[in-house]
Write a structure and sequence with these properties.
It contains four helices and no strands. By secondary structure, the chain is mostly helical. It has one domain. Helix 2 runs antiparallel to helix 4.
Amino acid sequence: MTTSSDETKLATETPVTEEKKRVPSWSQLSYGDKISYAQVMVSAARQYLGQLARRGIDDSILGRCDELIRVATDTNNAQESLKGELRKTTAALDTVVSEMGAKLAEIKKMVKVEIPQPEWKKFGIADTH
């Protein structure tokens, strides 16, 4: 059976290992997280509008925030769509450039076989052998 002094001793000897959670700064948040944060803030501000009105927060400010949230959401969605298109376009470009590189390597080999070395520079070939 433990006594209260034993419990106090255990409590003081046991180190606290709980890590402090670091809250990211505004600049570290993704656009989606910033939008979510704004939605939470505006929603809570509406609930406490009576108290916040003394400090200049009113429906017009919150209405403007709602509009900014809507525009940010639409713009973020458009950006995400563009990112998807960019990934597809980049993959297509990678395929074309890879094929182009293979064809140029083939041409380079033939140039080195058929054309005298002093003329290689005209083909953009800087090799010396």
